[in-house]
Design brief:
49% helix, 8 strands, 8-stranded mixed sheet, alpha/beta, Rossmann fold, N-(1-d-carboxylethyl)-l-norvaline Dehydrogenase, domain 2, 290 residues
Length: 290
């Protein structure tokens, strides 16, 4: 039952840049938010400490001691992550909060349901939101959004009370939160890939200066910053673009836009999680890969 603190323990897989802030948001509403330090990087350990997470000895131990597990991982790992939880005999609520297509979300739900596990679908829109980062009086649309759908979505919404995440329960239908996430990121991240390719093409033909003069200083500077900032996350965006491509295809639209975006982001993989920002010229060099 949900009391003042809503559940005894919550499991978090895994505290990456976004996942750690998800964990930090739930800590005040739980007995403990647990994570798995084994095999994780020093950066993950530092984020877990900052978020106030509690280390678990093993996935089996985490699954046996938690009533809710939240999965926040790269899109390609979503199915494996769920299967590992199933194999560890988890029996609570599994929150699938990854950037994956509604079809993959429903496939994961079927596997979980067969194992007696209830699932809530989650879609995160916005960046990592550490406690104290956001102004509580700000327009809710400027906050990081967590959309949830599924029969038990309202229970999960309560875990984020008074947090930096603006949480919305969309419906009782698993797949709705994922569909919203795919539609939103199709533009925000897809347009970043398009701008990246446009600058690369203009550079190839020797007309980048003319293009940027036409754009004007404000758009040019914004575009350069967008390309540099997102090069760090491009390795994750490529998988997300493929999930979006599948979503478009299922809906009867062309998947070509976002397959091309995935290819563009793949070429930037050398800049993964950079500590020192690459120059725009370094990014353009990366885009010359076949």
């Amino acid at each position: 039952m949900l009391g003042a603190k809503h559940v005894m323990n919550i499991g978090l897989l895994h505290p990456g840049a976004m996942g750690a802030t998800i964990g930090a948001a739930m800590v005040p509403n739980a007995e403990a938010v647990m994570w798995l330090p084994a095999g994780r990087s020093d950066a993950s350990r530092e984020r877990a400490i900052r978020a106030g997470l509690t280390a678990a000895d093993s996935l089996k131990s985490l699954c046996l001691n938690c009533e809710v597990i939240v999965s926040v991982c790269p899109p390609h790992a979503a199915t494996t992550c769920a299967e590992d939880v199933i194999n560890s005999k988890f029996t609570g609520i599994y929150v699938e909060a990854n950037a994956i297509s509604p079809e993959k979300t429903l496939s994961i739900q079927n596997r979980l349901q067969s194992a007696g596990i209830n699932m809530v679908d989650g879609g995160i829109i916005g960046g990592p939101a550490w406690p104290g980062k956001n102004n509580p009086e700000a327009d809710p649309r400027s906050l990081t959004q967590l959309y949830l759908s599924g029969y038990e979505a309202t229970k999960i919404c309560r875990l984020f009370e008074d947090s930096e995440f603006a949480t919305t329960c969309l419906s009782e239908a698993v797949g709705d939160a994922s569909a919203l996430k795919m539609a939103f990121a199709a533009y925000t991240k897809g347009s970043t890939a398009l701008l990246t390719a446009i600058v690369s093409v203009a550079e190839y033909y020797g007309v980048r200066n003319a293009l940027e003069n036409q754009w004007g200083e404000t758009m040019t500077q914004r575009t350069h910053q967008q390309l540099i900032t997102n090069s760090s996350k491009a390795w994750r965006f490529s998988g997300e673009m493929r999930e979006i491509a599948n979503t478009f295809k299922t809906a009867g639209n062309s998947d070509g836009f976002h397959l091309a975006a995935a290819d563009t982001f793949d070429k930037l993989s050398d800049h993964k999680d950079w500590q020192q920002a690459p120059s725009l010229n370094e990014i353009l060099e990366s885009l010359k890969k076949n």
